[in-house]
Design brief:
Two copies of one chain form a homodimer. In chain A, strands 1-3-2 form a three-stranded antiparallel β-sheet. Chain A contains four helices and three strands, in the order αβααββα. Chains A and B meet through helix 1, helix 2 and helix 4 of A and helix 1, helix 2 and helix 4 of B.
Chain lengths: 102, 102
């Protein structure tokens, strides 16, 4: 009998920056681009790429508005993103405790 | 005042396969190459690359012996690997709970 294959982590979430972004959004629903940049330590370009990837997966919504004349980018988590994040954490727990629970 | 930058996850551990390998070794001290292959679902070549990376970081020891005429590769975790894994989990917890604990 073969031992069970360890479940796969969602590659969209399993990235330092994207995991951090989702963790922030899980708790605060939405956040400004500048705030996410400071918290993650990512550059503008790098953060943009990660946000686009999350948006394409339907995990976040990106809204561009203005605060006076200043452009404002607000990122919020979707229900799908919330579910994917919870599933990711469960899978992670399963991997990390993989042998102990057997 | 700037918000705190989220801590960085050890990139050597933050990989689906390497995380799975270390999780197994944390619980069972050592494991055969074939067993790790089945559990992770990785190919021979892919698993070898990941194990070499873990070995170069001093996180695992790879020992090649024979079981009769059959070559046997045994991988075991080092104290450094154990510490790095524990630190990784703590950092992960910090990221995932980053906003909630503030």
């Amino acid at each position: 009998m073969s031992p069970e294959t360890i479940p796969e982590l969602d590659p969209v979430i399993h990235s330092q920056v994207r995991l951090a972004v989702l963790s922030i959004l899980i708790a605060s629903e939405s956040a400004e681009f500048g705030y996410l940049k400071e918290r993650t330590g990512a550059t503008d370009g790098n953060l943009s790429v990660h946000l686009t990837k999350l948006e394409k997966s339907g995990f976040v919504l990106i809204r561009k508005t203005f605060s006076g004349k200043k452009p404002l980018t607000t990122v919020s988590i979707t229900e799908k993103g919330r579910e994917a994040f919870e599933k990711y954490l469960k899978t992670l727990e399963q991997i990390v405790r993989s042998e102990k629970s057997k």
